[in-house]
Every structure is written in structure tokens, then in C-alpha cells.
Amino acid sequence: MSQAAVDALMLPPPLLAAEGVRLGYATGRRGWFRPAPRFLAVDGVSLTLSRGETLGIVGESGCGKSSLARLLVGLAAPEAGVVRFEGTAMPAPDSAAWRALRTRLQMVFQDTGAALDPRLTVRTQVREPLLIHRQPDPEARCDEVLAQVRLGAHLWDRFPRELSGGQVQRVVIARALAPRPDLLVLDEPVSALDVSIQAQIVNLLHDLQRDLGLAYVFVSHDLGVVRHVAHRVAVMYLGRIVELAPKAELFARPRHPYTQALLASVPVADPARRGARVAIPGDPPSPQHPPSGCRFHPRCPLAVPRCAAEAPALRALGATDVACHRAGEPGLPSLAAMLSGPRPAMAPMSVREPA
Amino acid sequence: MMLQFLAIKSLRAALTMWLVITFVFIVLRISGDPTDILLPDDASDAVRDFYRAKWGLDRPLWDQYLSYWSALLTGDFGISLRNNLPAWEMVMDRAPKTLLLGGTALGFSLAIGLPLGILAAWWRGSSLDRAVMTTAVFGFSMPNFFLGILLILTFSLHLRWLPSSGSDSAAHLILPAFTLGTAFAAQLARFTRSAMIDVLTKPYMTTAKSKGASEARRVFAHALPNASVPIVTILGLKVGELIGGAVVTETVFAWPGLGRLLVHAVAVRDLAVVQAILILIAATMVATNLLVDLYYGWADPRVRVGRTKGVRA
Which helix (DSSP H) or strand (DSSP E) does residue A241 occupy? Predict the structure, then answer.
């Protein structure tokens, strides 16, 4: 047995691991002679997450990041691949084992206002998971966790409608924290909030991680927020991870042209650098008919014939994993520089409509 | 706060009752003369005038209205012009039968429609869902007289299992209650299904699932209470209909209920009886709606008055 294999046996498994997971949706009705049309929202994603770590997942709307979040937390079962929690494959949704696992991993949903039952008070909702899982002293735990998210005690017997957006978000987080999970999957947790409230919630999440050793999967389209919270960042494009890197590395040396374009499109609060802001030309292609090969190639100015023919696999490039045939070529121009450069650079950017 | 809520609702209920009584009173008096129908065609004018004076129909309308009210407040609903019995007594004679039939039909609809609607919603798109919804369309498209006659033909004439008319035993109740309840069971199933689907697709249902709540808990602790508001609303409307609107079914099965009495009393312009029945139906409607309003307050905290203080969002 090789040393590497021995190490693999000795190391504890990561808290959460996805191995080539795929998830598709039907987009129409089944016909008489053809199956229902489908598209793959998540197409072969692999990643790992350690205890106490935050993995950011970023991408445009429709890139499959929310679907990936549902897979990671086990609300959806992958049609291929496997999600492992502490090395054990995720049980089927709604099985007894799956329900028992709800005390270990929890999810915070996108639309927090609608994520609370309008008929029940804050306290009732936060206490419910404790009652379901018969945890000791639910009343005390409920009060403890509501205090932990810094929600004023005078709000604990209110109904969701009587709370502001930031307060509701605290309740949703408290509810997720109540059964003492090891992992929170947060799907756009701050997108609906005012910027000042966003900062409060992000700081709260940060403190909770420090105090409780939580691991987060933080899904967001907002690179600024992800930059603030994540240890590592995965960039998704049309159901696939195109780049996965430690945060500092990703923001300093983005390897994938899409990541570069994404970073370059973020508004910069610095007048001296304002000129560098660019937009990626074209819309993301329809996920029902993804382009061949590298899915970014119709929008990529660096694309070569190989990009349309062969899908690039994630490969290590320094500390970064990147799925691009051309990344790492010496003398390759940065996409941001090309896009913000003189006009002719725009010429090769034709957006081909996929057949 | 609760007292204020009750006071407002009760005041509104009283106002509704006053409006109904007044409206019925006026419409009945100006829409025709009872002596035309109750007296023979060849009755002399002197006889007609005698009866008009006896029944107080010769007095001005406002005068009749005031004396009607003063009698009403002492519990006197007037005398049937037809057979000289107190109108209230005639109505109360029939009311228990109608309550029995309507109540049984309502219970039957709830027992069938509610569970089927919930199941169809939970497994929406499944063959069970389609079967329930197809049956429901069939159930409420079938007119009561047709279903009633069909049942009589099958179970009374052909199989000879159940009696076809009258109200003497529990066996007499089965066919009319089934006839009356089928259409509502079907409506209720469809209504429950759509209300439940509306709630089941809400994010808080996913939240409940991710809390680890069992399917039963999700349905009965989260979905049903939230879906109950529209369901209870239609229930409230339906109760009044079951009390006053069972005319066809009562006729087909010769069931001695209020519906048949009402139709008969209208036909012969028996003012006091018509008025008493309409007051009873209106009172039932108002009372059920009051109960429904109270239910809203209990089921949906958003409706509760006075809790809006200190709302921030």
C-alpha cells in the first residue's frame, strides 16, 4: 500500500463532500414518444468542506448554485454522484436517517420572510426542531439561541409579520442553529437585506463560526459579501464549477476567464481604478441547451477550437483548481485587460446561440 | 382587544339582521296582495277588505313595519295566513329535520372532501390526484334531482335496501344526505386541494422539512392550519346554503324540511311564514360568519386587531 493510500485511510473524512453530483429538472411534459425535456442544473460537481470552514459558491443567476445548495444539504437527491456527510452517503430525503441528520446540517433559505410559518410565533418556530428531535430542555435552548443571534427578547413572542427583514433573518438563523448543527448551508442569506443590515448579519455569521466552530456553505451572487466571509470560493457557470481556490488566491490571481470577467464586473469604490470595470458580453446560454465543450467558450475571447470540442476538467494550478484548457499558458492575456482595452478587442466576442 | 373585536363583529351582525328583516318585509308587502291567492277568485270586495283589515294590510306600510317589529321583539313572528298557526311554531316544527339533513350532509362532505383534497394536494400530479379531481368534477356537475332519482331507482326500487321518501328512521336519512353532500364534498375536495397546494409550495414548508418534521407533522401542524382559512370561509358560506337551499333534495325525497315549507309559503304568499324562515336563514348565516370571523382571528394572527401596534416592517 502506498504512503498516500495509508494517509487517506488515516485522515478523518471531510465534514461534507460532493462527488460528481448531478441534478436535473424536467422543463416540460413527457410526450408519447419522447421523455420530458430536462436540463441539468448541477452537472458533475465535486467539492469538500472541512469543519469550521466557509466555502463560498458564486455565479450568475441560473448557474445552479441554489440547486447545488439543496443537494449539499440533502433536500434533493442527486441523480448521479453522491454527497457524503462525515464520510457517510446522504440518506434518501424524508427517511428516518435523513431526518435524524437534520440536527447536524441545516439550511438558511433565500426568501427568509416566506421561510417562517406566518401563524407561529418566533419562539414556537425556533423550538420546533428541538421538540421534533426530542432534545433536552427545548425552552432554555430556544432562549439561548435567540440570544446568540442577538434578537431582542421583546421580539420572541412576535409573529414573523411583525419583524423587520434583518430580525427575520436572525430568527431564521436561530432556527437553523437550534439543534446545534455542524454545518449551515446559506442560500443567498443577505441578498434581500439593506447593505447596513447585510453587514450586521455577515458579522453575526462570522462570530457564530468563531464561537461554535460551524462550517458554512455560503451561496451568493455577491462577490463582495463572499470575499468577506469565505475561506475558499467556488465559481459556478452553467451547472459546473469552473474555478475553486482559496479566497486570497482567487481574488488576487483569478485563473479562469469567467472568474476574471466576474471580478472585473464588480463595481470598485476607487475612482482611480474605475476604468477597469467591464461587463461580460452576451447572456449566459440557455441551460436547456448548454454549449459543447467548455460551456463558457461562446462568450470567451480566449477560446480556441479545442474549447468547443472538449470539456475541460478541473486541474490544479498552484493552489487553484481550474477548468480551463488555456489557463496557465505563459503570456496569456487577462480577460479583464482584453475587455477593457481598445475596441478591436471586442471583435472576437461573438455570442453564438447554441443549436 | 378581543372584546373590541367581538363588539365590532356583533354590531355588524345586528346591522345585517336589521337590513335583512327590513328588506324582506318591504319586498314581500309591495310585491303582491295575499288576499288574491288565499281567497277564492269570486270573493267579494267586502270579504277582501275584511281580511285585509284583519291581517292589518290596510294600514300604511310604516305602521305595519313598526307593529311587526314590536311583535318581533316580544318573540311573536306573526300568524300563518294559511292555517292560523303561529309562524314560528311552523318553522320550528320543520327546523330539526332540516338541521339533521344539512348536518349529516355537511359531516359527510367533510369526511370525504377534506381527506381527499389533502391527499390529492400532497401527491399532486399523481394518478390518485387525477382520479380524485375527475371524480370531483363528476360529483358537482351532477344536478341534485338527477342524483337523487338515480339513487332512488338503484337503492329503493331496484335493490330495495333503503326507503325512498319520508324521515321516519336513520335509513331514511342516508339517500337524501348523500345526495345533498356529494356536490359539496366534491367542491370541498377541489377547494382543499388548491388551498393546500398553495401552502405546500411555500418556502416555510421546505423549512419544516429541513427541520426534520415528519410528513404528518408538516401536513397537520403547518400546511393545514395555514390552508384552513379559505376552507373555513367556504364552509361558512355552505352552512347557510345547506339550511335553506335543500329544496330540490327535500322535494325528491319528500323530506319535511324548511326548504319545502319555504317554497310552499312563497307560493301562497304566507307572509309571516316566509319572513320567519328568511330570518332564521339569515340568522344562521350571520352566526356562522361570526364564527368564521372568530376562527380567522384564532387561525391567522395577522387578522387579530390590536396586535398591529409596534409593527416594524
Answer: strand A240-246
As to burial, measured by CB atoms within 10 angstroms (0-12 exposed, 13-18 middle, 19+ buried), residue B262 is buried
Of the pLDDT bands very low, low, confident and very high (cuts 50, 70, 90), residue A10 is low
**Edge-to-edge strand list for the sheet holding A315-317:** A105-108, A183-187, A215-220, A54-58, A232-237, A240-246, A320-322, A315-317
Pick the CATH number of A13-28+36-230 from 3.40.50.300, 1.10.340.30, 3.20.110.20, 3.30.70.980: 3.40.50.300
Q: Any CB–CB contact under 8 A between A29 and chain B?
A: no
Spell out which residues of chain A touch residue B204, defining contact as CB-CB under 8 Å.
Answer: 114-118
The answer to whether B46 faces chain A, any CB pair under 8 Å, is: no
Could you state, in chain order, the average pLDDT of each consecutive group of 10 residues for chain B (313 residues)? Answer: 79 90 86 75 81 80 86 83 84 88 91 94 91 90 86 85 80 87 91 93 89 89 89 85 78 85 85 87 87 79 49 38
How many angstroms separate the Cα of B303 from the Cα of each of A8, A30, A119, B192? 59, 43, 10, 21
Question: What pTM was estimated for this model as a whole?
Answer: 0.77
Domain ranges of chain A: 13-28+36-230, 254-339
Sign of the torsion angle spanned by Cα atoms B134, B140, B141, B142: positive
A163 or B300, which is more confident? A163
Question: Nine-digit cell at B122?
Answer: 400532497
Q: In this structure, which amino acid lies at residue A237?
A: Y
The DSSP 8-state label assigned to residue A281 in this structure reads S
* DSSP 8-state secondary structure symbol assigned to residue A348: T
Q: First-to-last CA distance in chain A?
A: 49
Q: CA distances (Å), B85 to each of B90, B93, B99, B311, in order? A: 7, 11, 22, 58
Domains contained in chain B, CATH given: 94-282 (1.10.3720.10)
Distance CA A252, CA B175 (A): 80
Q: Convert the pLDDT of each residue in A181-223 to its tens digit.
A: 999 999 988 888 888 888 889 999 999 999 999 999 999 988 8
Residues of B in contact with A162 (CB under 8 A): 307, 310-313
Assess B157–A contact: CB distance below 8 Å, yes or no.
Answer: no
- Contact status of B203 with chain A (Cβ, < 8 Å): yes
Task: Determine phi and psi for A63, rounding to 5 degrees.
Answer: -85, -5
Chain B (280-299) residues lying within 8 Å, Cβ to Cβ, of chain A: 299
Q: Are A29 and A102 in contact, with CB atoms under 8 Å apart?
A: no
In this prediction, residue B305 carries a pLDDT of 44
Indicate whether this complex's ipTM tops 0.85. no
Which cell is A242 given?
469552473
C-alpha span between A247 and A269 (Å, rounded): 20
Contact A43, A20 (CB under 8 A): no
Terminal-to-terminal C-alpha distance of chain B = 22
**Closest of A218, A229, A162 to residue A151, by C-alpha:** A162
Residues 6+ positions from A16 with CB-CB distance below 8 Å: A48, A49, A72, A83, A84, A85, A105, A183, A215, A217
Q: Could you say which DSSP state residue A285 is in?
A: P
